[in-house]
Amino acid sequence: MAKPKRLCPDLVSEMTTVATPRVLFADTDKMGIVYHASYLRYLEMARVEFIRQTGSPYTELEALGFGLPVSELALHYHAPGEYDDRMTLRVALSLVSPVRVHFDYRVQVLAGDRRGLERDIDLLSAQTRHACVRARDGRPQPLPDQFYALLSSRVTSR
Amino acid sequence: MAKPKRLCPDLVSEMTTVATPRVLFADTDKMGIVYHASYLRYLEMARVEFIRQTGSPYTELEALGFGLPVSELALHYHAPGEYDDRMTLRVALSLVSPVRVHFDYRVQVLAGDRRGLERDIDLLSAQTRHACVRARDGRPQPLPDQFYALLSSRVTSR
Amino acid sequence: MAKPKRLCPDLVSEMTTVATPRVLFADTDKMGIVYHASYLRYLEMARVEFIRQTGSPYTELEALGFGLPVSELALHYHAPGEYDDRMTLRVALSLVSPVRVHFDYRVQVLAGDRRGLERDIDLLSAQTRHACVRARDGRPQPLPDQFYALLSSRVTSR
Amino acid sequence: MAKPKRLCPDLVSEMTTVATPRVLFADTDKMGIVYHASYLRYLEMARVEFIRQTGSPYTELEALGFGLPVSELALHYHAPGEYDDRMTLRVALSLVSPVRVHFDYRVQVLAGDRRGLERDIDLLSAQTRHACVRARDGRPQPLPDQFYALLSSRVTSR
């Protein structure tokens, strides 16, 4: 398993900030920091808000009988998240084909969003890969044209 | 919904031990103990194993088109659970009617199931109440006769 | 613990709306609705945002060496929550004593916050009860004066 | 991000089966299958039971003031898990150095452990990477000699 590639600074600057949720007790573990699995919920939040911003929410894709289940994911933890952090969720589409979609994520805490934090820090880099399927049987199925066009127009340039 | 009544010792002794799972990091929070919501997963585990022991697992009820969603729940926390505790999940059926089922629970750690623990302790008392519904639309529907008979035979005598 | 009393309409109108999170896939189960335990996370969110609005966030209480663990909770489910619902979290303080705090909650979906929903609906009523403790050993300890005063001023009038 | 390498059949046969938990409602989502993030809990269960089998449980490492937080993880989903599946959790140590530990996992459902399933299927391949740290400040710290020796003796031969 290779590590999720360090995104170059230019690429990070192209990411879209989609939400700034706060860390709850529910997210922490007995080490006093965010439990590693708790971030997956925030990646889902980031992804669904990104899709909503394209103009066609995920519920429309569902209404057409499609799904985008996760086929692979990779997370690289840089620094521990803390209770009550206001996290900044940033996301980019790095690949769209008729049957595959890849999202890249960066979870950050910006200066001022944790008591005493004076510079921005990265908590996590991640990538999730999704297959487009027919919801009723999980069979691969090309994205509806409308969604393919909308998503393609949002792929991060390189 | 009344407070989960302190079960009298006789009643506790009538409860069935259905599983002895260990507390994971995933269950803990930054206070170093089991997060209060983590127990609900263990109550589900207790309930489903209890039903399996009747001879008809919950999946059979589902296959007939029924569901038993939670309509009410009450939890009373007695002492904190700790990481790696081997918990003892005990459960009893306290009420069965054609359209309602009530489960009572006790979560304990027995002497020897936590390092240095010399006597049994109670972590939690709880009750969940369930409605029998038709799965496809959530409408109340009497339990299938077979399930009603099986469950009725397991109601805790008083 | 008594059943979460049906709040009279006047009392509901005194509740404070503290957040409007959206339901994620992570919150749902195979019945296609919000899993009953998923709401506990939202109750925590409601509670912590309510406390923040008093002017002293929960992190300040922690910094003073105190905690407010849940000692009892009761939930009453009225209608199923659905994926992508924008929920309205409402909360009130129903009791504050030097060593105890009770919160009442109502989770609603307002007309327009679910596709096709034409009138407000209640998903859940709940109450959580908390003990004030010294964090390092879990011993009961009266609330710091500043917090007691701030919270007392926010108790719902009856 | 490269995909977790397909373990060769020989390597899979060297994995240790450490637990056979059943899928709960809590693990599923509205697609009717296991939510992708639910597996992380099972990977933790696999890892901690594997360590216990070495003779020194994770709690002993903690008692010495150490931790093994996840620094990277990668998951590759092969087929959907279903409610009430009895999953087989298999795990191997693929690398141990004084400051790093890598675990490889395979989650399977064996023939007979799902109604009507006639051959073994793979649900998931995964790898987690861990750093050995001093618990009180998260600083990298070499594994205690005893643990290093125990773990090293369990690294999968190639």
Q: How would you describe this structure to a colleague?
A:
Four copies of one chain form a homotetramer. With 158 residues, chain A is an alpha+beta fold. The model of chain A is unreliable at 1-6 (pLDDT under 50). Helix content of chain A is 22%, strand content 30%. Chain A has four helices and seven strands. In chain A, strand 4 and strand 5 (100-109) form a beta hairpin. A five-stranded antiparallel β-sheet of chain A has the order 1-4-5-6-3. Chain A has a two-stranded antiparallel sheet with strand order 2-7. Chain A has one domain: Thiol Ester Dehydrase, Chain A, CATH 3.10.129.10. The first copy, chain A, is elongated. Chain A has helices at residues 9-13, 39-53, 58-63, 145-152; strands at residues 16-19, 66-67, 70-77, 87-96, 100-109, 121-131, 133-134. Chain B binds chain C through residues 1-4, 31, 33, 36-37, 40-41, 44, 67, 69-77, 80, 135, 138, and chain C through 1-4, 31, 33, 36-37, 40-41, 44, 67, 69-77, 80, 135, 138.
Q: Can you give me a brief rundown of this structure?
A:
With 158 residues, the first copy, chain A, is of the alpha+beta class.
**Cα Rg of chain A:** 16 Å
Helix content of chain A: 10-25%
CATH topology of chain A: Thiol Ester Dehydrase, Chain A
Between the first and last Cα atoms of chain A, what is the distance in angstroms?
Answer: 24 Å
Question: CATH homologous superfamily of chain A, by name?
Answer: Hotdog Thioesterase
List low-confidence stretches of chain A: 1-6
Please write the string of helix (H) and strand (E) elements of chain A. Answer: HEHHEEEEEEH
Strand content of chain A: 25-35%
- The overall strand count of chain A is 7
Major beta sheet, strand line-up of chain A: 1-4-5-6-3
Structural class of chain A: alpha+beta
